[in-house]
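Task card 7
Instruction: Convert sequence to structure tokens.
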Amino acid sequence: MAQSGIYFFIGTEAELIKLFPVMLQLQAQQVPYHIIASGQNDIVKSTILRAPNGGHVDLELSKESDIKKSAAGLMQWFAATWRKGKKAIPAHFGRDALRGATMVVHGDTVSTVMGAYLARRFGMRVAHVEAGLRSHNWLNPFPEEIDRVLTSRCVRLHFAPGQEATANLSKAKGLVVNTTYNTIADSLAYSRTIPCKDPVIAKLQGAPYFVFVMHRQENLANKTLVRDMLSRALQQAESMHCVMILHKPTEVTLQEMGLLETVQQTPHVTALPRVEYFDFMKLLEGAAFVITDGGSNQEELSYMGKPCLILRTHTERSDGLGQNVVMYRESMQVVDDFIAHYPDYRRPPIVPAQSPAQMIATALVKS
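Output:
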């Protein structure tokens, strides 16, 4: 039976990246939907949101600038935004409209948990895109593993990206849909239709380079790891150009360690701030290999078949592992072997036979 309405609760740009293809599919079927932004990231300004609906957000619960950059600050923001959401969402849409409708959440952020539990409070059905991923370690990745487990408890429509994720939901309540692949495959395909806007990235295309990304707090807190990885990246840059993405926490850490100037002044290193998604996909696709600690990067690179070293000890994602993706598991020998033999990890790109986003949109409408 078709639901009375579809709502997307989105907290971060990473969530938006994987949900906008579902919105595009709903638009293609002429199915209306609403967007609620928690404000964990400022998605209202995102160029990605312009693709499905011109950047319109129905309700924004907070601003990213409201969040103090600390774990305590995030929890304070969560409590304040939860309280606001309890009142603002029904006031804006009407309690009768919410009851029986579907709230779509994505992934593993604190906003995912917030959206799911607010929806349950309003008598909505919760649909979880990218459901079932598990590291089976509550503290790694933290808090993502906990967020996923908590979210799944109130989900009744689980969209699992593959057999392993589906198997993890064998005891879950409600309907489990195996989409085979992640919606990031749809996002990547769409990005290939968008021309490159960043002149620095456009200029890099065609020349050999590798990409280095380290931005997770647990890695940046490990100063020995930061020094060791930066040393290897700079050494490799002597023979192949390095593009290093300086997320704000990365920049702050390097500044505190007295290493930022070294990065900025080293020949054959291009240091870029966080790059807009569509251009970042072009940067990754043009790279010889990528060293990153981003889970979504692991997925994207698995679809590209690009050699990838993932700087994690545990991962809830199996994408590419044992094929194009190597996990370093706290071994610098693994890092050195990967850099020396990265061509061995090249694989053909993966092209899904059916769009995961289309499967999700169809299920949202019909189930």
